[in-house]
Amino acid sequence: MNETASPRSEAKAVRRQALLDAAAALFAAQGFAGVSLDDLGAAVGVSGPAIYRHFSGKQAVLGALLVGVSEELLTGGSRAAGLAPGGEADDGGTSLRALVAFHVDFALSKPDVIRVQDRDFTSLSPEDQNAVRTLQLAYVDVWVEALRRLQPEASRAELRLRAQAVFGLINSTPHSVGRTRRDGGRVPAAPARKLLESMALAALTAPSATPSS
Question: What is the pTM of this model?
Answer without folding.
Answer: 0.86
